[in-house]
Amino acid sequence: MAYKKYIRLILILVFLQAFSCAAYSVEITENLSLNGYFTIDATMADDNGIVLPSILGSASSLNKDEVVYDGTLIGVQLDYNISDNLSLAIQGISAKQSADEYDPILEWAYLKYDFGNDLFLRAGKLKLPFLQGTELRYVGYSRLWVRPLVPSNGAGGFDDYEGIELLKTYFIGDYNLKLHAAYGESDHFKDVVKDNEVRLLSTQIEKDDNWLKIALFNAYFDLYTYNDLIIQRDAKINMISLEAKYLVDSFIFHVGVTKGEAESYPDMNISYMSLGYQIDRLTPYIMYNARSAEFSPVILPAGAVLPPGPPPPGTLPLSADGERSSEAYALGFRYDIGDSYALKIQWDSVTMKDTISPLPSETDADVYTVVFEGLF
Amino acid sequence: MRTFIAALLLIMCSSTVGAEIVVVASLDSPISKMSQREVTNIFMAKTNRNSEGKRVTAIELSDSDCKTEFYKVITGKTISQLKSYWSKLIFTGKGKPPRSFDENKSLVEELNNNDYAVTYIPANQLTQSMKVVYDFRN
User: Is the pTM for the entire model greater than 0.80?
Assistant: First the structure.
């Protein structure tokens, strides 16, 4: 099995790191450094039919009592300082894509220019910073929970993009105000969405570890049927998200809500809330996470005819009218091992509803997940 | 009871050590003074500029008791919590941790070679080639 080879590689890296002195990164030269992260994931459900967002976006359906390792991945980033103001970063991951394929994927590749005064320009292949977790979906060590609390396919199905972005920070007394503007073209995860243009503006106000973030996302795209007939040109999608993190004593509170409205595409909504309590290296937590996609039938242009039979798997259900939703209550903990590793165990009680299928369904299941994550 | 008192004394001593840290630059550095907010922002990579707009480079030893104390004082974070913080910055390209050195000698060399480099040390390790730009004892 491919995952065994993969896990073996990660274990070798872990042991190598365990015997090396603690460092944040491998400094190859003064201007070239290497950083990496990994996740070993094992997930099991006590019933059939639970669909978890797999780490690379395609839905991962769990079968009763079968252990899956879909979240297992390894990522590496190279940073190179070309000059005092210009730098290059390249990040790639290897994670399960389908069956037992673990081909490497380029996640980030950009040039960054520092104008001074805390203003930066980045250009290249980037990730849309819609929610706090969208840029860090694969870096499990950076979060409290076993899975990211974000849609597996980014904002409205747009995740990474090729374009430019500006980042600016203002320091106002004890507060930092961060502005982030992004513009570019994105590869949508559905082939029927083409020629898109994405824009994002986010602002985050922070004081120490507490922050509040608001992001506005807008995209225009051309929508096609799966047999390549144009349905609508310049269809529009608008999304807004509001997130916050608040620390008081040893309590960590996270909350987030996202609303989306789209033409000829499902409206997507997400909400989450989590409360953790830090006891030295152990952080137990409770969490609530809900997602929904509301479908309306797409009006086909005059004369357009779809091939007979059901649409191919994974394509947009054009005639769908209804909602697909999931709701999860979770209990778990994170335990930090040494300075670079973490063990997390999470139990989810998941309810999934589908009112658009020919046979509406509701599935309840308990999902158990164990992950071992770290940096190297 | 004796064990309890000894443990209490030990905790009090280690707290005192935490307050005995100074942030230093080389004697020739144009940096004369920093606020604690500036120190935090520079060492946590929230900015790479001081209040005069000059690029400041934070440097540190890879591993030291002083490091644990320093970050506890400026952020309240443990080293593992700090790593989680750095992972967010590194892998989104929004910042890097201070450049680290394995040996004190290399750290001091870098401090002397770079006028805009700053580091933190226990106050009792201050030498004549350094000047204090922020003192946690005040």
Answer: yes
